[in-house]
Amino acid sequence: MIGNPLDSLKKIIALSTNLASESDLTVLLGRIANAARQVVGAEGAMVALLDQTKDNLRIDVLEITDHQIRRTDFPVFPLKKNGNINSSNICVHSIFTGQAVQVDDVYKYSGFDFEAFYSIDRLLSFKTKSLLSLPLVNNKVQTVGVLLLINALADDHRGITSFDKSKMELAEGFAAQAAVAIWNAQLNEENKRLINILEKTNESLEKENRRLKNAIDENYDFSEIIGQSAAIKKVFHFIKKVLNSDAAILVQGETGSGKELIAKALHFNSIRKNKPFVTQNCAALPENLLESELFGYKKGAFSGATTDKKGLIEQADGGTLFLDEIGDMPLSLQAKLLRVLQEREVRPLGSVETKKVNLRVVSATHHDLKKLAEEGKFREDLVYRLSVFPIMLPPLRERKEDLPELVNHFVNHFSNRYKKDVKGVAPRAYEILTQYEYPGNIRELRNILERAVLLCEDGLSITPDSLPDELLDRRRPEHDSKPASREVTSGNKGLKKIVEEYEAKIIRKSLQDHNWNQSQTAIALSVGRRTLIEKIQRYEINSTQQVSSEV
């Protein structure tokens, strides 16, 4: 390695940069051993680090003539023996003195005990002659271990010689850089370990919190209602207040906002949960059929009534009757429903007898019932009977903070249903989802994501191509006006954004040069095909985009 000092310096800088970019400690130590041999010119290199107790040096990697060896049976060098510094070991001596130590011939007496190295020689069928031991001291003046260079190579490679002054200076400079890289990698590993502990602790705490919450809330379970926004928490609060009441509840909200889920939460978390939950959409049937469904009939009540039929009101006895779209109920039936609410009794069609019923009525509508009453389309007295306890369900556009949780829930749900491995939603697609107003609310979002999961390629993320045209047409104008290719300028952008834009530009150019063949492009860019595909999705690269020649 020793030759032109400038060339040596350039190589050290390049190798140091390479080391600084590696965060995996195991990989890093192998690179350090290899780089040390190249920089200084040595037949072998060893990296030994202090263990967690700081009482021993442990050999982590040994590289001899391009062969890296990692063994658990290599000797461990204790820093102290019988309470005294183990100064007879060359590596320990380097640590305590903070100085580089060289020995020209380990088989001649030098005052150091090389029995451990003789054992390594026998294990590896190798002959150690000269050694250069350098303490690895980081930029905080903390020793992390030792770099040991074995058998200096002569400049002309015609024999083995000692580590002269120039080689020692070069080795010391490299060791300083290596120590900083090791320290950073160790910090990274420690951070990962602590994060892992923290995640496990948080997971344990979350489980305990859920258990305690369930105990406090008497097992109230609103898991089907997704969201943590202030608006939805207010709904949860109202639900809990009225759970075990017999008061009539009116759930108001736009179409698709989840009114039936609220009704189910009210029933299945109440003392009526083991009784029937009966539901009827008042807009789904014509008047005569709706009446017979709700109130039932006696045999012979009308043509075709060949047997007695129990109505939904009677079927819901002891439980909950959920009347969806109550605002569309015909006026003639409203009077009969009012009697049920007032008298708690029902009379089937064709019967002269009434039957007592014990039920709670939950109704839902997207209409303003008071406004309908003013227009003469709904009984005012029924409005007040139905809305003893009104609950207003907010539209999705007013609870956008719940969108991430909702998107994740539906993507996972449909991925499981259709047995697909969908890796979530790409950033650009998610941005489009957040900009849409969702006139169809949760139901529309659910349908959008079901379609997107079906269109998404297995193992990839949902991209804008998987979203409906109406979402893409409603993007903010600035997105539509952005050119497909832009010059990379700093402006107010951070370094990460600038690098990403340049990377996207390079990928587009390479794809164009290879006729958009992803396999050939991946080879040309020296990346895996899956990595390339992920980057194409992330940067939303397609063949309609043009690339300037200035790349």
Description:
With 551 residues, this protein is an alpha+beta fold. It has 4 domains: 5-189, GAF domain (Beta-Lactamase, 2-Layer Sandwich), CATH 3.30.450; 230-394, P-loop containing nucleotide triphosphate hydrolases (Rossmann fold, 3-Layer(aba) Sandwich); 397-480, Orthogonal Bundle (Helicase, Ruva Protein, domain 3), CATH 1.10.8.60; 485-539, Arc Repressor Mutant, subunit A (Orthogonal Bundle). Helix content is 46%, strand content 15%. Helix 1 (5-20) packs antiparallel against helix 2 (25-41), helix 1 packs parallel to helix 5 and helix 2 packs antiparallel against helix 5. The model is unreliable at 215-220 and 476-490 (pLDDT under 50).
Could you name the ranges where pLDDT drops below 50 across 5 or more consecutive residues?
215-220, 476-490
Structural class: alpha+beta
Helix content: 40-55%
- Please report the first level of CATH classification, the CATH class of the largest domain: Alpha Beta
Q: Rough shape? A: elongated
Strand content: 15-25%
Straight-line N-to-C gap: 35 Å
On the 0-100 scale, what is the average pLDDT? Answer: 84
Q: If you compute it from the alpha carbons, what radius of gyration comes out, rounded to the nearest whole angstrom? A: 38 Å
Q: Architecture of the largest domain, according to CATH? A: 2-Layer Sandwich
CATH superfamily grouping of the largest domain? GAF domain
SS summary, helix count: 20
**Total tally of structural domains:** 4
CATH topology of the largest domain: Beta-Lactamase
Biggest pleated-sheet summary: 8 strands, antiparallel
Overall number of strands: 19
